[in-house]
Amino acid sequence: MDENSSLGTWSVVNGSSISGNRASDSGGVLRMDKNSSLGTWSVVNGSSISGNRASDSGGVLLMDKNSSLGTWSVVNGSSISGNRASDSGGVLLMDKNSSLGTWSVVNGSSISGNRASDSGGVLLMDENSSLGTWSVVNGSSISGNNASYYGGVLYMDKNSSLGTWSVVNGSSISGNRASDYGGVLYMDENSSLGTWSVVNGSSISGNNASYYGGVLRMDKNSSLGTWVVANGSSISGNNASYYGGVLYMDKNSSLGTWSVVNGSSISGNRASDSGGVLLMDENSSLGTWSVVNGSSISGNRASDSGGVLRMDKNSSLGTWSVANGSSISGNNASYYGGVLRMDENSSLGTWSVVNGSSISGNNASDSGGVLLMDENSSLGTWSVVNGSSISGNNASYYGGVLRMDKNSNLGTWSVVNGSSISGNRASYSGGVLYMDKNSSLGTWSVVNGSSISGNNASYYGGVLRMDKNSSLGTWSVVNGSSISGNNASYYGGVLYMDKNSSLGTWSVVNGSSISGNNASYYGGVLLMDENSSLGTWSVVNGSSISGNRASDSGGVLRMDKNSSLGTWVVANGSSISGNNASYDA
């Protein structure tokens, strides 16, 4: 089609085909020159476009600058397959400022086995080009496409835009590959995708990138508004040989909301370095990540750090919510952060585990079975609420649940309304939490029938080890809550406070208890090392400290040289009873 020409409709119908065509330059089937337009191209009822080739770009179609295609529909068991471009765009290359309104793949139709020897195994969108909607609907698929460099399915160049990509009603994007970045999609600088929805039993699975982003790589300053995985849909078995088994976000890129909803899952993804699901590079941002209504993130793995997520320097995540019977479980990192590693100066605003939800069975082969917070990182609030739990997580060194590195800060950790932290383990110190030098925790509250129980450290601090100069403002155990059955094989069955560490207030209030904790040497509940300080320890209103044990000294408390306890109050029908030390009380 020459400049300024137009074609209203091109229909390939009822088992018809366009196949085996070749262009010595671009557009194996069709080349649309500048300012040309095609209204509708329909491939319908078992028809196909296959085995076409361009020696340059656009194995099927090349759209030149400012050209437009209104609708491209592949419908009712039709297919676009086995097309090839020796450069970019195995099926379609959209040149600068070109536009495609809607590309629909519907009712058991497919785009498969297409290839670009450079980028965009199916589609390359050049600078400032736009695609309104790409829909894959009703058991349709995009599969087995390949790019030798970027974007196994789609490469979006600088400033290009895709409004909506929807994968709906049992449809799939699977087995696509980029030999460099973005097994499915590569978004270049300043490109934008409004919404990517995977809905109603649909899936993104088995895609691969040899470097970053098994599904998606977002380059600098690119943006994705919303990624929705809903109603029994899944993202699974994707792989990146370096970073981001599903998604790699480069510097200053942004993702507004990632929702995993209504029995949906992100599972079995892998990065051979860091970020089994997601790696956020410096200064990137994710607004909200929600895992809701029986949904899950499970069985993901990073061979270095961040079994689910690694946040690089200065990156930020606003809110991570796990709600209504949802779970994060069985994820693994070979070094740090079985679920999450937060690098220096990164920040997470709120992490909420709510309404019967859980974080369980995650593992780090070094430290932070769930979370490692690196130097100067911050977490505002971590809440475990309404029968929710953090359980059975493991670190081979420090922090069965959480390791806080030097100068990191956690504002509030609340365990509320019948919630629990239980059965976590560190093979060295801090069965639940290890606080490194100069780290700080503002408030740790265990409230309304909640519990911290059955946690273990093979050396120090069955629940918590506070390293030198670390500080905990307030630890409150309130309204029938308990700390029980925790164990340290050396010091501090519940808490070990290292030299110069400080705890402002420890309150056990309103029928709450600290019981049945054990240290094999000193401090069945608490060991305070040299120069450590506890301001006030109050046991009030029918509360108790009972049945704790140290095999050497201090069945409840051992205070080392120059340590200080300001006030210990036992009031209003409260008690300290039945504690035991095999040597000194």
TrEMBL record:
Molecular function terms from GO: ubiquitin binding
InterPro entries named in the record: WDR48
GO biological process: double-strand break repair via homologous recombination
Source taxon at top rank: Eukaryota
Full protein name: Uncharacterized protein
Lineage: Eukaryota, Viridiplantae, Chlorophyta, core chlorophytes, Chlorophyceae
